[in-house]
What does this fold into?
Amino acid sequence: MDKTTALRERLRNCISAVLDLEEDFRAQGMDRALGDEMDMLKSYANRLDGISVDEDVLARLERLTEKILKECVLEGRVSANRDKVLQ
It folds into this structure.
């Protein structure tokens, strides 16, 4: 796998990790507040193949994604079976 493909895959993983929380957000009634953002992420995830990804920006995005996921777990916004998302 070349570097560009690997970077895109890492970006795809970040987006997927957040999208995996959609069910939990919906169960808590947060889907109205986050619906547009989730739809945007879904759309963006479908268009990753043609973009260039900066490794430094991606590293910051990965840290941010990890922080969001950890905060969701700490605040009880995700169900216990979603802990695997952080691994």
About this structure: The longest helix spans residues 55-74. The mean pLDDT is 85. The two ends are 22 Å apart (CA to CA). The chain has one domain: 3-86.
